[in-house]
Design brief:
Helix content: under 10%
CATH superfamily of the largest domain: YVTN repeat-like/Quinoprotein amine dehydrogenase
CATH class of the largest domain: Mainly Beta
Number of strands: 63
Distance between the termini: 44 Å
Structural class: mainly beta
Number of domains: 3
Shape: globular
Number of helices: 0
CATH architecture of the largest domain: 7 Propeller
Radius of gyration: 27 Å
Strand content: over 45%
Length: 699
């Protein structure tokens, strides 16, 4: 098959991305689903929380409503501090931002891509410190207008900082790091912690008495300003935050199962409090002994008004299962399906969702509705059908023992389903009978799309593309395409789209040839949806979401603020749209096609002579991560992994490479959690350059 060689590089070098804002808002979880890393409480009514992807939430109504604030950043935000009801700061990757109106509006006061800050504190209105990676300390004496570096004397990441006044302060971090200053940071002295466990948070009630907490249930105490630290353990959880509301009363939160500990005797003994959640908790803050908030993973918000005797959730979710597919038949009526047989349904555009009983615990990967009553869902070995809008679901006999990945109907009678081992099923009576069609492949087929009563297209692993016409399946080979292909859609018999891992394909002649819109955004795409020949969207892993308004000639990046995987898209004719994904994510827009362009630099502005080291994916990661880079010309390449002390721990590449995109996986089974550095050195006849990226291994 002919493959047109139109290549557009999506990741730009020395150029900005096009960003759009389509006013996507959360429907599940609610008020939002990003991890919240810190909370600051003003009084029993008001609090501000920050988190991943530049998330900032504020409540002035005891948490009954939380309003998303404009942070003017998409960076992770890890910590915030308010000196008074108006003036506050937040820190994260490469950034420090400030608010002067109680968190309603924020502006940048520091940007540096080489820095990442995890904690900030101000003992008064003028003197402040921010600490982070790698052993970085910034200091201000004018309320954050100007910042200067201080020498910490350590290279480990500093995760928390606390000052009792403008002179006396402590910072703690990875591998048991504790440093102390008595002169405002002019000199920092290393203190012995007695542990090599990561210390996540530190709190001092005066210049002598302090506490620190960390992983593996670590609790450290000092009564002499840190000259001596007593190390103890009060559990096995990874404690993230400690907060004293007075000399005696304090809380610790953390772990992966919602652990809350309270002490009323300055930490000599602790009691467990019930959080009502299994989500990890990141931060705790009280304004008095009764009123406090806790925030954590996946948007968790907890509040107490009685000193923790009861914690109420201000975080609502209809499901936390992964949602794999979504189908709307009009602006109001829709369904989403996912893992463990979950089916959720709305009749008011997603303002409210209810759970339907699918009669199965099998994972459901696909859903298709023809009207408000008749629909199908498919998953592990099963096809389910409803004729009453999902009030009852019944299993249809399909004759296959293979997992099914996708189902689509052209009308209420004609439909297809595909899955593992190249399975293709066909029905012409609404699924009362399913017949197996002969398939020329044994690859997994991920998605099927019905073009008309006779024709459909299906795509799958290893670049598989099938056209099914009049009951016969024909394999369409596309030269150079070997990636996982995850979704296909045709807007008429001639024009169609395919997306997959690092690839977009388009046909304008009914699949006889395909235009390759290859780009190096380093995330797989899971779904594609076009509402006409010009306007379309694609979404995928780690919150990747892109849009085109000119049929794919250019793509813009939408500012959806989620790090979760986005698995399926659906739009109605009026321009309302929904996205579903991991952790029960449901996002909605009501103005598809409206674009608020923040920066406009076309993709053609990419400099073809500029190498690019792409951020690894995923990041943070567990057992392995993918590292990619672009070579504009052939050259000798060295790709190494170093720890934070600069020690080389792995050489991934040390060889001559041709121009193009180079991908390699780093397997981390034998490495411990922590921050690592990925160093890329490129030597060509024209230049020698070196690039570095930060990698976060989190086991």
């Amino acid at each position: 098959m002919k493959l047109n060689g139109r290549i557009i590089l999506f990741l730009l070098c020395f150029a900005s991305l096009v960003l759009s804002n389509e006013n996507w808002f959360w429907q599940n979880p609610f008020p939002q689903g990003n991890t919240l890393s810190d909370v600051f409480v003003f009084d029993s009514n008001s609090a501000v929380a920050v988190g991943y992807n530049g998330t900032i939430l504020k409540t002035t109504e005891r948490g009954t409503t939380w309003i998303q604030q404009n942070s003017n950043t998409s960076q992770y935000l890890f910590d915030l501090f308010f000196h008074d009801n108006n003036t506050g700061w937040a820190v994260g990757y490469s950034t420090i931002i400030k608010s002067e109106d109680g968190g309603a509006n924020w502006f940048s006061v520091w940007e540096n891509p080489d820095d990442s800050f995890f904690s900030i504190t101000f003992p008064d209105a003028n003197h402040g410190w921010a600490v982070g990676y790698p052993g970085s300390i910034l200091h201000t004496t004018d309320g954050g207008t100007e910042w200067q570096y201080q020498t910490s004397g350590v290279s480990n990441s500093l995760l928390s900082v606390y000052f009792t006044d403008k002179n006396n302060g402590w910072a703690v971090g990875t591998q048991g790091t504790i440093i102390h200053t008595e002169n405002g940071g002019a000199d920092w002295i290393i203190q012995e912690s007695g542990t090599d466990h990561h210390i996540e948070d530190v709190f001092f009630k005066d210049i002598n008495t302090g506490w620190a907490v960390g992983i593996f249930g670590s609790l450290l105490t000092t009564t002499d300003g840190g000259d001596n630290w007593d190390y103890g353990g009060i559990g096995s959880e990874a404690f993230q935050s400690i907060f004293f509301v007075d000399d005696s009363t304090c809380w610790i939160v953390g772990g992966w199962d919602g652990e809350i500990l309270k002490s009323v005797n300055a930490g000599f003994s602790w009691e467990n409090q019930s959080s009502g959640t299994l989500n990890g908790l990141q931060s705790v803050h009280f304004c008095d002994t009764d009123h406090g908030w806790i925030v954590g993973n996946d948007g968790t918000i907890l509040k107490t008004s009685n000193s923790g005797l009861d914690w109420s959730s201000q975080f609502k979710t209809i499901t936390s299962e992964v949602l794999n597919a979504v189908s709307f038949v009009d602006d109001n009526t829709g369904w989403a399906v996912g893992n463990n047989g979950v089916v959720v349904h709305t009749t008011n555009g997603g303002t409210d969702w209810d759970v339907q009983d699918s009669q199965t615990m099998s994972g459901l990967r696909s859903v298709c509705f023809q009207n408000t009553n008749i629909g199908w869902a498919a998953g592990y070995y099963e096809i389910l059908n409803t004729v009453d809008g999902g009030t009852t679901w019944t299993s249809q006999t399909n004759g296959t023992s293979y997992d099914l990945w996708s189902i689509d109907f052209y009308n209420t009678q004609i439909g297809w389903a595909v899955g593992r081992e190249g399975t293709v099923l066909y029905t012409e009576n609404g699924g009362l009978n399913w017949a197996s069609l002969g398939s020329p492949t044994d690859e997994i087929l991920h998605c099927i799309y019905a073009v008309n009563v006779n024709t459909c297209w299906t795509v799958g692993e290893n670049g598989t593309i099938l056209k099914i016409s009049n009951g016969s399946a024909e394999l369409r080979d596309v030269a150079g395409v070997y990636q996982e292909l995850n979704a296909v859609q045709f807007i008429n018999e001639q024009v169609g789209w395919i997306v997959g891992d690092y690839i977009i394909l388009k046909t304008e002649d009914g699949g006889n040839s395909w235009i390759d819109y290859t780009f190096t955004v380093n995330f797989p795409l899971h779904t594609v949806f076009f509402i006409d020949e010009n306007r379309g969207w694609a979404a995928g892993e780690t919150g990747t979401f892109i849009k085109t308004t000119d049929g794919g000639e250019t793509w813009i990046r939408d500012t959806i603020k989620t790090l979760g995987n986005l698995n399926a898209l659906c739009f109605t004719e009026s321009g309302k749209g929904w996205i579903v994904g991991s952790n029960g994510t449901i996002l909605k827009t009501t103005d598809a096609g409206a674009t608020d362009v923040e920066e406009t630099i076309l993709f053609e502005n990419w400099r073809s002579d500029c190498p690019v080291l792409i951020q690894n994916y995923p990041n943070p990661f567990n057992n392995s991560t993918l590292i990619q880079f672009i070579l504009p010309v052939p050259g000798f390449v060295t790709l190494k992994i170093r720890d934070l002390l600069g020690r080389e721990i792995k050489t991934l590449i040390h060889a001559y490479k041709s121009e193009g995109v180079v991908r390699i996986q780093w397997d981390t089974e034998n490495y411990s959690s922590g921050l690592y550095l990925c160093d890329l050195e490129i030597r060509t006849a024209a230049f020698q350059r070196r690039y570095t990226k930060k990698l976060i291994l989190n086991k």
